[in-house]
Specification:
The protein has one helix and no strands. By secondary structure, it is an all-alpha fold.
Length: 46
């Protein structure tokens, strides 16, 4: 289990991903799926 402080929002983008895309490509895929800007210091998990 990963402890999450209260007040923190967790966003999940589900689907298949090509791990060969690299971190920038994967981050862009998540950003497009969620329709949110992830460059604001948000934590991401793959």
């Amino acid at each position: 289990m990963i402890p999450v402080p209260s007040g923190v929002r967790v966003w999940l983008a589900v689907g298949h991903s090509d791990m060969r895309r690299g971190m920038n490509g994967l981050a862009l895929q998540v950003q497009q799926a969620l329709g949110r800007d992830l460059s604001n210091g948000a934590q991401k998990g793959l």
